[in-house]
Design a protein that fits this description.
Strand order of the largest sheet of chain A: 3-2-1-7-18
Helix content of chain A: 10-25%
Number of strands of chain A: 25
Distance between the termini of chain A: 56 Å
Radius of gyration of chain A: 23 Å
Largest interface: A-B, 72 and 72 residues
Largest sheet of chain A: 5 strands, parallel
Number of helices of chain A: 12
Shape of chain A: globular
Structural class of chain A: alpha/beta
Oligomer: homodimer
Chain lengths: 454, 454
């Protein structure tokens, strides 16, 4: 392939952008590649930031997978602190502002990958601009939060989802009084309520942790007109706070895509095909700025996760000049822990199934040990499995507990991603040895019970 | 269902027999169930015995899942030290010898489950009858070996397979000089040679361990005409030994089945259909005495493992009076560890594929971390993945290393058991978070590389 006249520009350098750059380089050694990001860091693991804040990881440099120097060595031009403002598809150029020099330059491309990611949702609450109130999105955020943690005494986390719970672990492990304020009636809102209830029970052993469900912030208060000192709830309760993190979700960064009049999906994120092409065939998009297909419902969803960002970045690079690889979509598989309590979801929760008008389903919740019960370190896990009553297809699984849930989440993800029925799944021959598993796995028992439930 | 005139007799009480009894009881509360075993123990985990010997588990009673009293309480008559000698299918009776009273009684049945298991292969070597030479099959064996371990100084293990390696861990952990004598050119002979080679390298850190490959025993020597004192190899080498375990395999116990003229398969084990029925429809068989179907090759194989024994026992019980559940076969999924080095196989090794005349395959071996590399406790794993070049179906996977191989073994077992292609597998959406996994799993990378290899 003659790539002499080709120029790849990548906008964004966290997961999707950096992965796309690395993959494009290894596939096309001759291709001219430039990566622009408004950030000061590139190619870092956002998902690892809570563990850096906790101090499982001391140095934030450990989170950085490839430095700008690594990229430069491979002939990728990296422009930090450069914000892309406007794409002109007809001239195939991007206007990019050097934020340090305050200068705008027009760069030509023949292929463009938009990996602008997402922005944390910041609720319009009085006092939200006070110091010591953060979101956790960039390494810069993580560095600031970790720094303030050294002197903080009372932390408040707004939002009891993945980032909220992971940060709570980090704060509690650093002996900080921590309050989680969650507007819904449960923690980990993408799980079913009775499943999240078990997490809530587990959290009760942490004396420095307060969880306020069904609670909303009215305003942030300050004693010195500069730093936050307290959070006032809509019901009048006051919570002391010298460190606040808002973790109530993110929304796709689509301003740049809009400038090119790229088609957006119903979720508001950028619409792409399975080759990661936008409505302009030479413009690709990947990561938290794009809409995904739920492989179970075949509906478009916005579930921005690190694993799909990486895969989409790779897929975009693969398909730059010919169709070589498809990204089929997601099932919303996610996993996290709060100290020793693990939680994974693959596919639809029961409430999500109902929201998708899937009413004809069957379900089972069972608890079992993760490995042979006589072995040291065997622990309980609970599985909630949901399948279609009409087709027997597995719709979703939720796994929680102190035991090793990952193998079961992995196995069920293969099944759900591939539309397998409970009967298909039930015939699986899993490897068994006492230090690793049980002679009949909990997921097989559950699948078999649902298979019999006709 | 009126079960008043039905009588279930189960012969054998370890994994398959005990599981069948428990399942039959829960399905048919009214059914008369009697379980006979020549053993003094029932319902124990054979797979846990190495960890009992090692002392991870102190009391052998922990290995016992259900005691005879547990069964009796549920109305199952348990006869220990009772050996079934002869089945007469035309009269539907079994002749059973009470080994303690030395008395033979004829028992009537309407349904019979044969779960006679297997017997360790004992090579015909001079001196093999000496004291302190064992096989590891029953709890009694495990108790004896653990007892002798207290005073032993030099242990010899004949056979470097699963039991051999697990016992070596137990012996070394108890500071015993240990020699493994293996007749083939590699440890863990069901893995490919270059994979087992990595285990061999790992073992080199254990100063008290000697591994002799391509080696065979000529005779066992005794200084006192009673206990073993040394092992002489065919090449003349002498190895001091005050404890020997022979772990060179097992063969199905089919004498009882032969007495009923039940059909045996080409492997010599009892032939059953997918409902676990033998050639006599009221006689079922399950566990290590039966032949299995390899779901990849659809050939009959004899791969006796604890997980299939349990599933087959359950399946037999389910189908006693009507066809309710099928056991579709196995893929030979197995897992073990030697200290911190884990090994799993699912499906065919490369050499097993070749043995099955599968020549048109593609393969890849890659090494990656198990979880995000910046996390504490991330470790390497190596995956060898084999797929058919003509159909793209995944044929087999081998996973080794100090990292967490179980999730990958589980995921690939679902795929292989269900005939999935590398392209099917590659679209799986796995849950990712730094403490659990990587953003793009090693198995996805491997599947995708094989998918591209056309």
């Amino acid at each position: 392939m003659n790539l002499e006249n080709e120029r790849l520009i990548i906008i964004g350098g966290t997961a999707a952008g950096a992965k796309a750059a690395a993959k494009a380089r290894s596939l096309f050694p001759e291709l001219k590649i430039s990566l622009f990001t408004k950030d000061k860091y590139i190619s870092y693991s956002g998902c690892g930031m809570p563990y850096y804040i906790k101090n499982d990881i001391e140095d934030y440099n450990s989170l950085i997978i490839r430095t700008p120097e690594d990229f430069e060595k491979k002939g990728i031009n990296v422009f930090l602190s450069h914000e892309a403002l406007d794409i002109n598809p007809s001239t195939e150029t991007v206007f990019i502002k050097n934020l340090l020099a305050n200068k705008i330059v027009e760069y030509p491309y023949t292929r463009l990958i938009i990996a602008t990611g997402a922005t944390p949702v910041i609720p319009d609450i009085e006092g939200v601009e006070l110091k010591n109130i953060h979101t956790l999105r960039t390494i810069h955020d993580a560095i600031n939060i970790k720094h303030e943690l050294k002197t903080a005494q009372n932390a408040v986390i707004i939002g009891g989802g993945y980032i909220g719970m992971e940060l709570a672990e980090a704060f509690l492990d650093n002996k900080i009084n921590t309050t989680i304020i969650e507007s819904s009636k449960q923690l980990m809102n993408n799980f079913d309520e009775e499943i999240s209830e078990q997490l809530l029970q587990y959290t009760k052993q942490f004396k420095k942790l307060k969880i306020l469900l069904n609670s909303s912030v009215k305003q942030f208060l300050s004693e010195n007109n500069s730093h936050v000192s307290a959070v006032e709830l809509t019901d009048g309760r006051l919570i002391n706070a010298d460190l606040v993190v808002i973790a109530v979700g993110i929304r796709p960064d689509v301003e740049l895509a809009k400038s090119a009049k790229l088609e957006l999906g119903s979720t508001g994120a950028i619409k792409v095909n399975e080759y990661m092409q936008t409505s302009e065939k030479n413009i690709f998009a990947a990561g938290d700025c794009v809409e995904k297909v739920n492989m179970i419902t075949q509906k478009n969803v916005y579930i921005p996760l690190g694993t799909s960002a990486n895969k989409e970045g790779k897929t975009a690079a693969m398909n730059l000049f010919e169709h070589r690889m498809q990204f089929k979509g997601i099932i919303g598989a996610a996993i996290t822990r709060f100290f020793k309590f693990n939680m994974a979801i693959c596919g639809l929760s029961e409430k999500e199934a109902l929201k998708n008008s899937i009413n004809n389903y069957k379900k089972i919740t069972i608890t079992d040990k993760d490995i042979s019960s006589y072995m040291p370190h065997s622990h309980k896990i609970t599985l909630k499995l949901i399948a279609s009553k009409s087709t027997n297809r597995i719709l979703g699984a939720q796994l929680i507990g102190e035991g090793n849930i990952t193998p079961r989440a992995y196995a069920l993800s293969v099944a759900i991603s591939n539309g397998m029925t409970v009967s298909d799944y039930a015939k699986t021959d899993f490897a068994y040895a006492p230090p690793f598993s049980r002679s009949i796995d909990i997921t097989l028992t559950a699948a078999q019970i649902l298979q019999e439930d006709v």
